[in-house]
Specification:
479 residues; alpha/beta; 2 domains; seven-stranded mixed β-sheet; three-stranded antiparallel β-sheet; 24% helix
Amino acid sequence: MADKSLSPDTTVPDATLVRYDLGRPDWDPGWIPDLADPQRTVPVGLDQIIDILILGDGFPDRADFESQLTGWLDDFFAVDVYERFRGAFRLRALFRRSDARVTSARASYYRVLAAEDGDLSAAGNWWESEGDANEEFRTRLFNDMGLFDFNNFLYPGDLDVSAGGTVIHNELAAMFANCVVCMLTFNSNGNNASGFTRRVPFGLASGCLGGMLGLSATPLPPWVNVAFGANSLHEFGHAFAYLEDEYINGRCNSASRSNPSTGSLFTLSNLTFSPRLDEALWRHISPWGRVARQGAGDDPTPTVGWLWRGGERDLNVWHAEYHCLMNGRHDNYLFTSDAAADPTAQPDGSYQDETGARLRSDHRYCLWCQEIVVARILEKTGQLAAPGDPDSINSRGQVWYDRWVATWRDRYWNFFELETGILDREQLYAAQGSEFDDLNNNGLVLWRSDLYQPFHGDTVSVTSPGAVDDGEALLLMTA
C-alpha cells in the first residue's frame, strides 16, 4: 500500500515557505517492480528517479494547500499503474504563502494567469512570452525548483518527435526527462482552477538555477513540463507520459496528423491517425489480439481495443476505449455521431459547443494508455537500455520500441495479468455500472454505439465511422 504521509520541514504553524516530503518511505530508496520476476524489485538510483514537484499558487492558507496535497495523493495512488510503480516517483511539495488568489490581475505569488471565470488562461502564451509578469513567473518557478535536489537529466537537443506532426503531447528536445512540476492553482472562487499542461522554457538568464545545474553549455534552453490547475492527474498524464487528449474538441473537424513512419518509444501515442491494420498500435489489445473475443454465447460483445472516434479532433483520429483518464467532455458524443439522436443534443436537435458527454474515468487509464505509462517509467528509469545501443537518441528510441514489443511487452502483460484483465475490462463496459448512468438513463447499450469500428485491412478513406455489427466483427476476427 502506498504511503500518503505529508512530512513538512518545519513545525512553525504560520511559516510562509514549507517543503514537504510526500510518502517518503515509498521512494527512499527508489525501486520498481521486477517485471520478469514480480517477487523481486529493481533498485532505482538518484540518476534514474522520477521527480514530481508539487507547487501551489494563490494559497494564502497552508491548510488549504495541505488539503489539496492529500487529495492529489489519493488520486495519484488510486491509479493502479502509479500505485504499483510508486517507488519510482520521488514526491515532494512546496507551500508558498500567497497574498492573492490566482486571477487576471496576476497578483498571486507565481503570477499564474486566470480568466474572468476563474479557469486558467492561455492568452498570449504567458508561460513562455516576454513581459514582467511572465518573466517573474518563470524566475519564481525555477528558483523554487532549485530549493530541491532533483534529477536534471535532459533529453538531447536533437531528439526529434515531430515527423508527420507531433503525435505526443509536446516536443521533448532539451526537456527535463525525469522531472515534472504540478502547479496547483487556487482561484478567486476558492477552487483549484481548471488548467492545462505547458512546456515552460527554463530561461537561464532569468535566475541562477541554470548555472547551479551546469547547463550553460546547453545548445537549446532547457524546458520543464508543468501541469497547471485542476484535473491534475489528467494533466500529469500529459506532462509525464506525453499522452494526448482523447476527447473531441470541435465536431466534424478532421485531424491532419499522421502516424510516424517508423516506430519509436519517444513517439508512442495513445492516438492513431489511421484505421489500417498494418498501422494498428494496439492490435494486441483488440478483440483479434492476444485475447480473442467474439461476443458469442454469454460473452459480452467486445468493445475494448477497437478504434474509438476522436482525439482532440473528431474525424480521422481514434483512441482505444470508450472511457479513459485522458478523455474528458468538450464536444464528445455520448453514443452516436448523429448529433440530433445523441443525448448531448438539445430538444430541438441542435448542439451547443462544450456541452458534450463526459467520458473521463477519474482513476483508470484505458489499457493502451496504461501500457504507454509503463513504457515511459521503464525508459526513464533506464530499464530499456542495453549495451550496444546506438549513440543517436533517435535511433535508440527505435531500438527501445522494438525491444519493448519483442521482450518487455510480454513481461508487462504477465505482471498486470492481462489475460484476465482484458476480459474484466470488457465486463466493465458490458455491465454498464453507475459510471455509465448517462447511457443507462437513456436506454443505450454501449456495444451498439457507432462511435467505434474495427481496424481496416487495406487503405480506405474514413470520414464517418459506421456502426459495428456482430457479423462484421466476427468476419474481421476470423479473417
